[in-house]
Amino acid sequence: MKTRSQTHWLIDAVLFLGLIAAFFPDVTGVEQHQRIGIFGGALAVLHLALHWEWESAVTSRFFGRTSNTSRLYLLIDGGIMLGFLAMVGTGLVISTWLGLTLSNFGGWLTLHIIASIGTLLLVLTKVTLHWRWIASVGRKVLEPAPSLPSAAAPKGAVSRREFLGVMGVAGFGAAVALTSGASGLLSQLFSETEASPEESPETSSASAESAASSTGTNAYSSIDNSTASSSRSGVAQSVESPAQSSVQVVSEDSAACSVACRRGCSFPGHCRRYTDSNGNGRCDWGECM
After folding, report:
1. Does one domain contain both 10 and 49?
2. pLDDT in tens, 65-115
3. pLDDT of residue 191
4. For residue 80, what are the CA distances in angstroms to 45, 49, 96, 109?
5. What's residue 230's pLDDT?
6. Are 100 and 133 in the same domain?
7. pLDDT of amino acid 133
8. Is the Cα torsion angle 19, 20, 26, 32 positive or negative in sign?
9. CA dist., res. 123 & res. 79, Å (int)
10. Domain carrying residue 175
């Protein structure tokens, strides 16, 4: 039967793993990424509820008689909770579940990534401060209980190897997640810089339609001229000229086609800006409008 400390350890471990997994939406997919975010937010609230007695006691004595260590732990816990609120809040705003029409989608996505990176840094700081508790309780959770008591080490002792294990696993996972988050933030900032002088999909569509109409007018005038000449040169030439004019329309229309994003992303999850409003299986930003 697991003790209360072991239950807390399991909840915190799942919460940490979920936070790491949330930094890889290209692997999990957008739908699973959103579910992981909601599940992680629920676990963060559960963690707060399980430690509410300690948190309320330290809060009431924050400016009174309490230790500086308790104040530091409370500030870190408060920052982590605010970080999860910011992550879940911004994630819901840009989620596919709500489908909100946002004029500044890139700004919301940037805030979401920054909140995620800041929260992970605070969680890594908390793991560093509580590594002894994590190692001692984790030993009981992960290892089977011995049949006979061992006298090799005193009860509750934490070895140097366990410290390296805790910090190695947490540090490696956080480093990989932070690298992914930083690259996502940089790509988002660069994409906003590149997209600013370019046309949006709607503007590109309007320009393409106007170009198509102008090319159509030119095509009709060429058809009239070819028809007039065909009356003098014969029926074969009058049949040939509409085909030539149609080829001219296609070539001019292809020349007028432009894209708003040239990354070549053609499926969900590969790019955070992926949209497919026409349902053809290709990203609207990278196809001719």
Report:
1. yes
2. 999 999 999 999 999 999 999 999 999 999 999 989 888 999 999 999 999
3. 72
4. 11, 14, 25, 19
5. 45
6. yes
7. 93
8. negative
9. 9
10. 4-143+156-195
At 88 the pLDDT is 96
Residues of the chain with pLDDT under 50: 147-148, 150-153, 197-223, 226-243, 246-247, 249-251, 253-254
Angle between helices 131-142 and 4-21 (to 10 degrees): 100
Whole-number Å distance between alpha carbons of 185 and 193 = 12
Rounding to the nearest 10 degrees, give the CA dihedral for residues 73, 74, 77, 81: -170
Phi, psi for 26 (deg, rounded to 5): -70, -25
Pair of tokens at residue 214: 């102008």
Contacts of 48 (CB under 8 A, 6+ apart): 55, 77, 81
CA atoms within 13 A on the CB side of 209: 6
At residue 185, the pLDDT reads 81
Specify whether 171 is located in the same domain as 270.
no
pLDDT on residue 207: 46
Q: Using H for helix, E for strand and C for coil, what is the string for 151-189?
A: CCCCCCCCCHHHHHHHHHHHHHHHHHHHHHHHHHHHHHH
Domain count, the chain: 2
Residue 71: both structure tokens together? 């104040």
Asked if 89 contacts 37 with a C-beta cutoff of 8 angstroms, the reply is: no
List the beta strands (DSSP E) in 89-238: none
Residue 107 corresponds to which tokens in the numbers above? 């700004």
For the record, the structure tokens of 113 come out as: 């990534």
Which CATH number characterizes residue 99's domain? Answer: 1.20.950
